[in-house]
Amino acid sequence: METFDVTVIGAGPGGYVAAIRCAQLGLKTALVEKYPSLGGTCLNVGCIPSKALLDATENYFNINHKLVAQGITVGEVKVDFSKMVKRKNDVITQSVAGINYLMKKNKINVLYGTASFSNEKSLEIKSADGTIQNINSANIIIATGSKPSALHGIVIDKSRIITSTEALSLKEIPSSMIIIGGGVIGLELGSVYARLGTKIKVIEYFEEILPNMDRSLGKELRKILSKQLKIEFYLEHKALGCVYENQESVTLSTEDKQKNKNKFTAQYCLVATGRSPYTGNLKLENTSISVDKAGRINVNENLETNVKGVYAIGDVIKGPMLAHKAEEEGVFVAETIAGQKPHINYHTIPGVVYTWPEVASVGFSEEDLKKSNREYTFGTFPFMASGRARASMDTDGFIKVLCDKKTDEILGVHLLGPRAADMVGEAVLAIEFRATAEDIARTCHAHPTYSEAFKEACLAATGNRAIHI
Description:
Blueprint: E1 2-9, H1 13-24, E2 29-33, H2 40-45, H3 47-65, H4 81-105, E3 109-112, E4 114-119, E5 122-126, E6 132-142, E7 146-148, E8 161-162, H5 164-167, E9 176-180, H6 184-195, E10 199-204, H7 215-229, E11 232-235, E12 238-246, E13 249-255, E14 261-266, E15 268-271, E16 275-277, E17 310-312, H8 323-337, E18 351-353, E19 358-363, H9 366-371, E20 376-382, H10 387-392, E21 398-404, E22 410-417, H11 420-432, H12 437-441, H13 452-461
């Protein structure tokens, strides 16, 4: 029976990054993956393929809506949807090949099969052909990720009532689609298909979309997507059930805030109500590893379970289900196992929504600060006042900066605008180093750039000193 210093279960962003860092630190490392393709949900049926479709459909939308205003006349523009999906698949293939290369480069033992605990230091790995391999490991990192959450009363048949996985591989452009959930997944996939002409209706249980982000972001994005893509939003609606109307459509029943019953019919219904931790097949019952009521694995400040030497990272533990959060945790655990003293700051893990305009957020929201009775100041700057944004016809949105009223320390930054996903990095760094709004306001930003809006928002937060508004 082969023995490893570290065995990582799950080859998603958290798992493969943890394996690479363990190998870099000189630990004999194994990475176990039950699917034939490395990369997990993010690379195969999540982050990467969705961005490929988002970029493609954004180009299509811009050709039809922006180019004429910029003095560019084009002929008839058509969508070859099968080719668009093929390109998406090619991006996945290339990315998987890159991870395979990294495994070989770092001499990581990749074991394909489903891993389960025989005991707290031993794993059984069952391959697709039924072959069983048993290994021992001094340390084990559980990184098995998550799966789409189901809703009571709604049966996902993966045909007309689908999850994000099926939505990324449809054979046709739907004429209409109901999306249950106004969060990241629903809004991104809704944008993809709305740009292609699909009539989209978003059903959201809470009083605003993006309920986990600063309220101002969801409110403004809803207005933009309603105008830009004609997406219809139905807030404070509870999904009750979804049934086939016929072979070509489904009908969703909901109840609104006033207890009125409503029905929505479309060609497809996408259930995008979040994800649940996946620990199936691990046979945790063969260990004393504890889980909470939501099925998440309990860990301490070192991300170690109640079983010494067994760790858990990513979507199977508490916290936002984000690929970059899992990556940070993977490095953290690898360095902890190696005896180092790593650092991870959950307050500076950004959230991003890849609609257009993009949404990004880090730190406290305004609602958080009000709830904790913390005194704060804020400054905002609209992209309408940005010369760079006017030049590119991307004037929707704003940047909002929240600061401690006494110290001016930046507590939160919330962006809705062009390239917000890239710009949030400066905000993350500012909060990590406990910068003040004055620090950013006195930092030279290149002109003309979108990032100048961050400086202007910081100027606005320090005594209403914004220059260009």
